[in-house]
Design brief:
Blueprint: H1 5-32, H2 45-81, H3 96-101
Length: 112
């Protein structure tokens, strides 16, 4: 059964909420992902290692968030084009419950 207009509106709200959340996360993690200044006079070796490790984690988080943001924006495009809710693999409808949990999904439960 195709998505109703109310379901489409709800999915749009979910997608837009997640987009806003990820944009904030990317902005915040961007500050932590900046290059670490290795001033050996002011910090010890362990502090420098911690700073580099934290920077690496922030960069990975930011990359993961950017990937998901791209998928969410693509889902909004599919929603606008009337294609959201149709499996990219088999062409069957994607269950509304699945879209509520993974609004950016492109595949149905059977294919995913």
């Amino acid at each position: 059964m195709p998505l109703t207009e109310d379901q489409k509106d709800e999915i749009r709200r979910l997608l837009e909420k997640e987009v806003a959340k990820l944009e904030r996360s990317i902005q915040i993690s961007g500050k932590s992902a900046k290059p670490v200044r290795l001033d050996q006079q002011s910090v010890g070796r362990l502090s420098r290692m911690d700073a580099l490790q934290n920077q690496g984690m922030a960069q990975r988080l930011q990359a993961r968030d950017r990937e998901r943001l791209t998928r969410l924006l693509e889902a909004l495009d599919r929603l606008d084009d009337g294609e959201l809710g149709v499996c990219a693999n088999c062409g069957e409808e994607i269950a509304y419950g699945r879209l509520e949990v993974f609004p950016e999904t492109e595949v149905c439960g059977g294919c995913g």
